[in-house]
Structure formats: structure tokens, C-alpha cells
Amino acid sequence: MSGTPDRISLAARLRNNFLTGLIICAPVVITSWLIWTFIHWADSWVKPYIPLHYNPEEYFQFAIPGLGLLIAVVFITLIGLLGSNLFGQWVVTFTESILNRTPLVRPIYKGVKQIFETVLKENTQSFRTVGLIEFPGPGTYALVFISAEAKGELAVRFNELGQEMIAVFLPPTPVPTAGFLLFVPREKVIILDMSPEDAAKLLISGGLVNPEVKDRLIGAKDEKDAKP
């Protein structure tokens, strides 16, 4: 019986070492796999359109990972540079006029363009603020990303009801790539100090990875606890 504690202790140490190694290796492996997958995805889209006599792989006789991604980045940057001058703006305007007059294509193009302009606009606050709302019922809270104020017809309808509503995005756990678009009264949203990155970590981990508390919140809590 004297050897049992040693065996249990050895098993516990092996288990702890395995979990420690898993915590170290898993993020590195998953991150590397995601980056590698994205590079291959970009290469598979770009490389087929590179003429053979311009493709370095034809001369080196081996694949160059990331070549397609690099060419795509350079190409997009050049398009942006050309689009910023007078002739480029004329070409863009002319192309957009054709797309906007083409049935079926027009709504798709305008919708996609509006999404990219909203997301990439430097001064936009969309999805940069995190909050809490009561969902799916009173007393239960869900993490959301603040999208924007209600606009257009929705704003008119909500004003008729006497409510100031904001749009929030409610992502699922553990893969927050899809979710629900909800319109919630502004006073019902609890704004949080955590960054969108910390909120994403919290969602992906299923609540296991919690962001650190901001200093001002710690001070406010200490003042509240100090009150008689």
C-alpha cells in the first residue's frame, strides 16, 4: 500500500505536464494551421491567373508559399493607388455606373460595397464596442457587439414608437462567425470596457478566458465596498 501515493503522484504529475504542454502547443499549432490554410487559399485563387513566364515557381522548380497572397496584396494596393488619381476615379465611376444599371448585379454590388465601406471606415465605431443585453430572457445576459444606431425606415418606425434603438450583433459560442442581428433599446444595453479582442477570446473559450478588469473599475468597486 505504501507505493500507491507515489503512483498517484506520478500520474498527477504526468497529467499536469501533458496539460501544460497542450496549453503551450495547441495555440501555436492552431494559429499556424489557420495562417497556412489562409495562405494556401489565397495562392489557389491567384496563382492560376499568373502567366507562366512571370511565375517564379517555373524557374525555381519548387512551390513558393504565399506568392499568390503577396501578389494579391500588391495588386490591390496598386488598384487603390490608381483609384486615388483623376483618371482612376473616372474609371471607377464609369465601372460603378455600369454595375448600378445592371439588373441582379446592382443590389449585390451596392450591398457588398456598403458593408466594406462601413467596416473599413477609419472613424467607424461599429463592432468596436462590447456590451451586455438580457437574452434570451430577463435575468440572463449575453455578450454583444454594438453595430450602429437604427437608420432609415427602421429609425422612423422606432421613433414612431418613441424608442431609441441600436443594432447589436449577438454571436454564438465557440465559433462567433454567425449570429443574430438584434435591435435593442439603448438604455437596455450595458456598455463594457473590454476590447472586441477580449470579447472574442471570452466567446471562443466558452467563458474560460476572462479579460482583466480595468483599473478604473477596480477603483470604483473599492469605493463601493468602502461605503458604510
Automatic annotation (TrEMBL):
Designated name of the protein: DUF502 domain-containing protein
Transmembrane segments: 18-39, 59-82
Organism annotation: Ectorhizobium quercum
Keywords: Membrane, Transmembrane, Transmembrane helix
Keyword DNA repair annotated: no
Short name of one Pfam family: DUF502
